[in-house]
Amino acid sequence: MIAKRGFVMVDSSHSTYAGTPRWVKAAGIIVLVLFALFVVLHLTGHGFGRHLHG
After folding, report:
1. What's the CA gap between 14 and 3, in Å, rounded?
2. Is 14 inside a domain boundary?
3. Number of domains composing the chain
4. Is residue 40 part of a domain?
């Protein structure tokens, strides 16, 4: 698609920025899932606290 910006014609179909890499998205999803699991475990009283005490 060609768009007109000011006096310059810009072809947006040939963008040099490809977006966020797939590994960054995957790592972000994994971190969010682990954080949500951590929060749910602590809210339900099944946290790791009782396993750490000798």
Report:
1. 12
2. no
3. 1
4. yes
Distance CA 17, CA 36 (A): 31
Q: Provide the domain limits for residue 44.
A: 19-54
For 16-29, how does the pLDDT look when each residue is reduced to its tens digit (9 = 90+)? 778 999 999 999 99
Q: Write down the pTM of the prediction.
A: 0.55
Q: Nearest 5°: CA angle at 13, between 23 and 4?
A: 135
- DSSP for 19-32, written as a single string: -S-HHHHHHHHHHH
Whether 51 is in a domain gets the answer yes
Q: Please state, in angstroms and rounded to a whole number, the distance separating the CA atoms of residues 28 and 36.
A: 12
